[in-house]
Amino acid sequence: MATGIEHDADFRRAGREFHLRSRMPSFVQLAVFVVLVTISIGLGFYVGQTSEGWGLAVGVAGTIVAALLAASIKVANQWERGLVLRLGEFHSIRGPGLFFIVPIIDRVRLVDARVLAADIPRQEVITRDNVPVSINGALFFRVTSVEDAVMKIQDYGYGISLLAQTALRDVVGGMVLDELLSERERIGKMVEQAVENDSKAWGLHVTGIRLMDIDMPEDLKRIMSRQAGAEREKRATIIKAEGDRLAAENLAAAAATMRASPGAMQLRTLQTIDGLGPTASNTVLLAVPVEVMQLAKRFSQPAGTNGQTSSRTLPTIASAVAESANAEVFT
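Predicted structure:
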């Protein structure tokens, strides 16, 4: 709350400084006043030499006329507009550039027509799911109607700042924490629309509202961090399980292909041996040749009609046993 009070004081101080600056005489006014006073003093000396007693009166009258003429000259910068009040009533909008008014009768209020930036002080808001958050933002607006901005509200800068604070609290209070963290741009648009609708009658146009920082309690930050870590671990476990399933399906398909082709297993064995490389540090010992495995497969087949192994199979068995006795060593 102290931050908001300091912010309001800064707004009012800036407004007072701008009003004082608009009342200060410009360089053109000072130059005209000095020139006219010099002429009146010179004319007073000349009249005093010819007619005694009239020189001082001419000098004083010339100084008064110079002051009135200098006060009738006003200069507005390119980004400023001057609101002229004649005897307290609205008369016209002047500027930018050089313009003239009626001294003493007219008063001028200069208004900045550029895009103005204001800070939305930090607000303590409770979201719809009862989570306390601290949020601040930036407000950008400009004056579209000088007459309405001066005559319909006392201080348009201070007024639109309070309007933005209340609109921000209303919008954020109607959302849950997840929406607040993920949809900051949409929240800014909603606050901008609310402020625009209320400030349009004051001759103001909101060009944008941006949320700057969203702060939460430390314990809630730790809980959200653990939740994010658990969610990432869950996704990693699911991805790993999916990879294992795909690998198992591919291995099953490869095994089916090798089972359909009799020589596929032998070719795969030779490829594995070749992949070990020709270095002397790699030694491969084949204790059980592939032929012995095929022999065991043949033994598992049903016997012939006489219940004995056929005569064509015996030489094959003898040769396979001989090969198994002489195991091959690849170095």
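Summary: The two ends are 84 Å apart (CA to CA).
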